[in-house]
Design a protein that fits this description.
Elements: H1 2-8, H2 11-33, H3 36-47, H4 50-56, H5 62-80, H6 86-100, H7 104-107, H8 110-120, H9 128-154, H10 162-168, H11 190-195, H12 201-210, H13 222-252, H14 257-286, H15 300-317
Length: 318
């Protein structure tokens, strides 16, 4: 009994991080839409996502990546909503720090966070210095200390400890020379994989983001896949229609400033989704073949924002 409990204990971390992810999805959506029902629907969609529940059930680092990225997007929503209080700055700094101490799939959201901060964070000049110091301090506390630790031990140019990994990895390498490479080793480039959809790469990635349950490759029924396909399709269609209508209104001089601001934020969210997908494809092409859509889940909150925005428009229309 004791041995079983010892093996089960580490899983508590993944359970806790995924539970907090659902909580931050709820908060982020509530802060964005100001409607509890939208927040409930969004948090239910992520909470019931089969791949997400599978990640929560075992020890892994994907749970920390999804959690930290979701927390960061929730902080960006607060900034977009002009809630630039001290608590928001603390929240933002901690979330950035947690992303830094997480894995690369979470790091990919940092460019979006930086752009959103520059575009939407507004405070009085007299608060720049204290707020900046608080932001830096919270970032270090949240996870920036890990970068500082690496730089102090391995050099300022090796803040992710990559050089030491390259030195140690060959000693424990079990793959043969032709293994551990990306699709490029088989003559499949970025265009063939991502655009021409070699071997249904896009479909397999989306399906594995929903289910397929990691290395076990356990498939789900169409009933489970269909709602999440609908989420993705509606989110994409919504943003494309937004681009069209905003372009027309700008051309005719009817575009409102508040809607432009919202469109810019939505564009950042859409850009984060695209960037995550491109980086995921790049890794499969040039580094390691891992057709596992779980690496796309750190951008689940932006996807839910666009999806629920689409449902809001449909509700107002019909």
């Amino acid at each position: 009994m004791g041995s079983k409990a010892w093996h089960m204990a580490p899983r508590i971390g993944s359970v806790l991080l995924c539970a907090l992810t659902v909580a931050f999805v709820y908060l982020g959506l509530y802060w964005y839409f100001g409607n509890a029902w939208y927040a409930v629907v969004g948090s239910a969609l992520i909470g019931l996502l089969p791949q997400f529940t599978f990640i929560a059930s075992h020890l892994n680092d994907d749970s920390s990546a999804i959690f930290s990225a979701t927390m960061l997007f929730a902080a960006l929503i607060l900034i977009y909503q002009r809630r630039t209080k001290l608590s928001t700055i603390v929240f933002l700094g901690l979330s950035v720090g947690l992303v830094l101490v997480s894995k690369l799939s979470a790091w990919l959201v940092l460019p979006t966070a930086g752009l959103a901060f520059l575009l939407f964070f507004r405070i009085e000049k007299k608060r720049w210095l204290p707020c900046g110091l608080i932001l830096i301090a919270m970032t270090i506390i949240g996870g920036g200390w890990w970068l500082l630790f690496n730089m102090s031990h391995y050099g300022i140019d090796d803040f992710r400890a990559r050089n030491i990994q390259r030195e140690i990895a060959p000693r424990h390498k079990t793959l043969k020379a032709f293994q551990g490479r990306g699709f490029i080793a088989h003559g499949i480039g970025f265009y063939q994989l991502g655009i021409r959809n070699h071997d249904n790469f896009v479909g397999a990635s989306i399906k594995s983001a929903i289910g397929h349950l990691g290395w076990l490759q356990l498939r789900l029924s169409p009933v489970q896949y269909t709602p999440y396909y609908a989420v993705l399709i509606l989110a994409v269609l919504y943003y494309l229609m937004r681009v069209l209508f905003v372009s027309v209104r700008c051309w005719t001089g009817m575009q409102e400033a508040t809607d432009t601001r919202r469109f810019i934020f939505e564009t950042l969210l859409a850009g984060a989704i695209v960037f995550q997908a491109l980086a995921y494809t790049y890794r499969n092409v040039y580094q390691d073949i891992q057709v596992q859509g779980k690496y796309l889940l750190p951008i689940i909150l932006p996807l839910l924002v666009l999806f629920l925005a689409a449902t809001r428009v449909m509700g107002h229309t019909f």
